[in-house]
Amino acid sequence: MNAPQKNSTPITVEVALGDRTYEILIGRDVLGSLGTRIARLRPGARTAIVTDRTVAKTWLKRTEEVLDQAGIAHASVIVGEGENSKTYAGLQQVCEALIAARIERNDLVIALGGGVIGDLAGFSASLLRRGVDFVQVPTSLLAQVDSSVGGKTGINSPQGKNLIGTFHQPVLVLADTAVLDTLSPRQFRAGYAEVAKYGALGDEAFFTWLEANHAELFSGGAAREHAVATSCRAKAAIVARDERETGERALLNLGHTFGHALEAATGFSERLFHGEGVAIGMVLAAEFSAERGMMPASDAQRLAKHLADVGLPTRLQDIAGFAQEGLADADALMALMAQDKKVKRGELTFILMEGIGRAVIANKVEPAPVRDFLQRKLAQT
Ligand SMILES: NC(=O)c1ccc[n+]([C@@H]2O[C@H](COP(=O)([O-])OP(=O)(O)OC[C@H]3O[C@@H](n4cnc5c(N)ncnc54)[C@H](O)[C@@H]3O)[C@@H](O)[C@H]2O)c1
Ligand SMILES: [Zn+2]
């Protein structure tokens, strides 16, 4: 991993949302063009870079340099890494720092970091002075293919994840694929689960391509840009058709109903990263679909094999500490799923599959067969 690669012409993906349309630029060293792009987009604007401690160590200096080169004033706001910053306290810290940096209505907030920073900085920008614009520079694979696309911003409540938030679209997204070279292999793999999700939910040809090209994607070759661009295009197309998640956007939750319950059951800890929960959740959704006769069992096996090939967990038994500490029982997992915000009036909404590339929204899934299915999965060795 991390062999130096040559830079390439960026790929542009447009997110078509009327007068809020914006571009995602994907490529090695697109970060180098941040200053000139901002100067063109918003002449004279001041900026504030919101980032976390880890990303600040590796990428803040470079970001400040490219802004300096374009003569753009910048302040920086550094928060602690991880979900602990996606809180009321984190929001207060960022908003107060943005006010102190004299960020006004025509200025720009720059979110430099993973999904935590994108959500926190975007939310802060949406509230500051009743809304200032922001630019996303997503630095994790998950943020590049998922959280930086679609405009959902927010923080966690002590009562649940992402319960406080707004829709606030960025004005520009720069997804620099070279920045991913400093991400830990485990974080990279977790983000990859969301990449594979786009193939699994709506694009069998992309899934087949991933089966053949995943090694180059991990090592940082041109396959990485293609995969990020294809993922962004898939999400952008769905978001453009259903920005507020009244219908089709729910397909993006493939693997997430099971996945969130597993994350909650492991206390949102290091035991299971979000993408790892999604990987196991997708396999469970596929196996449950196969059991119901909706899709061939061979498709569920194909999905599990690919995720396992890249080193992702695919079974409940793969969760760290499963043998020693166990996991919640089936009833507890059902209760956690019932708390999920995708549940409407007690009925479970699941994203199920009819095949690789063909996910469907199943609105009225009865709890009993799901509980029975989970009980059998928990009992496996
Ligand atoms: N808004 C949305 O639509 C949306 C969608 C999916 C997920 N999310 C949110 O995104 C968050 C998860 O995002 P994440 O996985 O990026 O988490 P994260 O932002 O916590 O980043 C993961 C870790 O990687 C580190 N990191 C990030 N980029 C790095 C780099 N280039 N080099 C070295 N280290 C780096 C971070 O410091 C952090 O420790 C969750 O809070 C989730 O709710 C939001
Ligand atoms: Zn996700």
TrEMBL record:
<feature type="binding site">
    <location>
        <position position="274"/>
    </location>
    <ligand>
        <name>Zn(2+)</name>
    </ligand>
</feature>
<dbReference type="InterPro" id="IPR030963">
    <property type="entry name" value="DHQ_synth_fam"/>
</dbReference>
<dbReference type="GO" id="GO:0009073">
    <property type="term" value="P:aromatic amino acid family biosynthetic process"/>
</dbReference>
<feature type="domain" description="3-dehydroquinate synthase N-terminal">
    <location>
        <begin position="77"/>
        <end position="189"/>
    </location>
</feature>
<dbReference type="GO" id="GO:0046872">
    <property type="term" value="F:metal ion binding"/>
</dbReference>
<comment type="pathway">
    <text>Metabolic intermediate biosynthesis; chorismate biosynthesis; chorismate from D-erythrose 4-phosphate and phosphoenolpyruvate: step 2/7.</text>
</comment>
<dbReference type="InterPro" id="IPR030960">
    <property type="entry name" value="DHQS/DOIS_N"/>
</dbReference>
<comment type="function">
    <text>Catalyzes the conversion of 3-deoxy-D-arabino-heptulosonate 7-phosphate (DAHP) to dehydroquinate (DHQ).</text>
</comment>
<keyword id="KW-0456">Lyase</keyword>
<dbReference type="Pfam" id="PF01761">
    <property type="entry name" value="DHQ_synthase"/>
</dbReference>
<dbReference type="GO" id="GO:0003856">
    <property type="term" value="F:3-dehydroquinate synthase activity"/>
</dbReference>
<feature type="binding site">
    <location>
        <position position="161"/>
    </location>
    <ligand>
        <name>NAD(+)</name>
    </ligand>
</feature>
<dbReference type="InterPro" id="IPR016037">
    <property type="entry name" value="DHQ_synth_AroB"/>
</dbReference>
<dbReference type="GO" id="GO:0000166">
    <property type="term" value="F:nucleotide binding"/>
</dbReference>
<feature type="binding site">
    <location>
        <begin position="139"/>
        <end position="140"/>
    </location>
    <ligand>
        <name>NAD(+)</name>
    </ligand>
</feature>
<keyword id="KW-0963">Cytoplasm</keyword>
<feature type="domain" description="3-dehydroquinate synthase C-terminal">
    <location>
        <begin position="191"/>
        <end position="343"/>
    </location>
</feature>
<dbReference type="GO" id="GO:0009423">
    <property type="term" value="P:chorismate biosynthetic process"/>
</dbReference>
<dbReference type="GO" id="GO:0008652">
    <property type="term" value="P:amino acid biosynthetic process"/>
</dbReference>
<feature type="binding site">
    <location>
        <position position="194"/>
    </location>
    <ligand>
        <name>Zn(2+)</name>
    </ligand>
</feature>
<feature type="binding site">
    <location>
        <begin position="115"/>
        <end position="119"/>
    </location>
    <ligand>
        <name>NAD(+)</name>
    </ligand>
</feature>
<keyword id="KW-0547">Nucleotide-binding</keyword>
<dbReference type="InterPro" id="IPR050071">
    <property type="entry name" value="Dehydroquinate_synthase"/>
</dbReference>
<keyword id="KW-0170">Cobalt</keyword>
<keyword id="KW-0057">Aromatic amino acid biosynthesis</keyword>
<feature type="binding site">
    <location>
        <position position="152"/>
    </location>
    <ligand>
        <name>NAD(+)</name>
    </ligand>
</feature>
<keyword id="KW-0028">Amino-acid biosynthesis</keyword>
<dbReference type="InterPro" id="IPR056179">
    <property type="entry name" value="DHQS_C"/>
</dbReference>
<keyword id="KW-0479">Metal-binding</keyword>
<keyword id="KW-0862">Zinc</keyword>
<protein>
    <recommendedName>
        <fullName>3-dehydroquinate synthase</fullName>
        <ecNumber>4.2.3.4</ecNumber>
    </recommendedName>
</protein>
<feature type="binding site">
    <location>
        <position position="256"/>
    </location>
    <ligand>
        <name>Zn(2+)</name>
    </ligand>
</feature>
<dbReference type="Pfam" id="PF24621">
    <property type="entry name" value="DHQS_C"/>
</dbReference>
<feature type="binding site">
    <location>
        <begin position="81"/>
        <end position="86"/>
    </location>
    <ligand>
        <name>NAD(+)</name>
    </ligand>
</feature>
<keyword id="KW-0520">NAD</keyword>
<dbReference type="GO" id="GO:0005737">
    <property type="term" value="C:cytoplasm"/>
</dbReference>
<comment type="similarity">
    <text>Belongs to the sugar phosphate cyclases superfamily. Dehydroquinate synthase family.</text>
</comment>
